[in-house]
Design goal:
Structural class: alpha+beta
Number of helices: 6
Number of strands: 12
Helix content: 40-55%
Radius of gyration: 29 Å
Largest sheet: 6 strands, antiparallel
Low-confidence stretches: 288-303
CATH architecture of the largest domain: 4-Layer Sandwich
Shape: elongated
């Protein structure tokens, strides 16, 4: 009987003590998982904050959102699809001329964003040394090919504007052709230039020439605009870009800019954008107003 009583006692101990141990173990695991989750959340928040700050710096280093210089008014915007953009815009003054560029570094997000500062720095340095866009892009191309580093593919539209005469010299390195909309509504594609940068050794680049007359508008854009697709897979295209400009307030670059951007978003509908977007618009007014200094990335700006 004593043996039976002992067995019963041991049974009851195991029966009632085991669940307590199990509950305690589950609670411990739950707390550990919760602490781990909170730690990961803090790390994610820190990363998002760092990416946001990097995106703000990139925008400040890129082209101005708006400025007026004499009889010219300029507006631009960049929208990355993933925090940092591979598209870029830059504007600078050089010997009284206005030099501006729009480019697209292959890739998206952090990878493309990491190349942004170096690429823009190389281009601006060569532009400061060489008198015309073709010579500057030839030098950039050689620099990329002989650096020993495998750079991502980069397209670029580079132009130099004589703000007195309106004469425009440009070079297009594999970028979507900029569009010059004349007063009579005619559209001129600016596609003279050369191949994508850093791809073919010994590539030649040539200048194209045109004139930005009073009342005319220059649009330069990245392929993220023209190649934006709707739910049916149809592209927005150059025609969609031009239709959006025609639907905006004439002679107002900011109005044209936001009309195009809104047009792209409306066209895409519920679909997600797959590429960065960059757009710059330069309009020549009929009158002449006081120059403002160019400050990249600011609101009233110039370069």
């Amino acid at each position: 009987m004593a043996c039976l009583a002992q067995i019963r006692e041991e049974y009851h101990k195991k029966r009632w003590s085991a669940p307590v141990a199990t509950v305690s173990s589950k609670a411990h695991r739950h707390r550990a998982l919760k602490d781990q989750f909170e730690s990961l959340k803090r790390e994610n928040d820190d990363l998002n904050r760092a990416m946001y700050e990097a995106a703000q710096v990139q925008r400040k280093l890129s082209g101005p959102r708006h400025f007026r210089a004499g009889s010219y008014e300029f507006a631009s915007e960049i929208f990355p699809v993933r925090h940092l953009s591979g598209d870029f815009i830059s504007v600078m003054r050089l010997e009284g001329d206005l030099v501006f560029m729009i480019g697209d570094i292959a890739g998206k997000g952090l990878l493309a964003g990491m190349w942004f500062t170096h690429m823009v720095g190389v281009i601006r340095r060569e532009v400061s040394v060489h008198a015309d866009p073709a010579a500057a892009l030839s030098a950039v191309d050689r620099n990329l090919l002989t650096s020993g580093v495998e750079f991502p593919l980069t397209t670029l539209f580079l132009a130099r504007l004589n703000t007195t005469t309106g004469d425009l010299v440009y070079c297009n390195a594999g970028h979507p052709p900029a569009l010059l909309i004349h007063v009579n509504g005619g559209v001129e594609e600016l596609n003279e230039g050369g191949p994508v940068l850093g791809v073919i050794s010994g590539s030649s680049f040539v200048n194209g020439k045109t004139q930005l007359r009073a009342g005319s508008t220059l649009l330069a854009y990245s392929d993220g605009i023209a190649e934006c697709r709707n739910e049916s897979g149809v592209e927005f295209g150059v025609e969609g870009l031009l239709n959006s400009v025609r639907a905006s307030t004439p002679s107002a670059p900011n109005s044209m800019l936001f009309s195009v951007l809104a047009g792209v978003e409306n066209f895409a509908g519920t679909g997600h954008r797959e590429d960065d977007i960059a757009l710059m618009i330069l309009h020549r007014l009929s009158g002449c107003e006081k120059d403002e200094p160019v400050r990249n990335g600011s609101e009233r700006h110039a370069a």
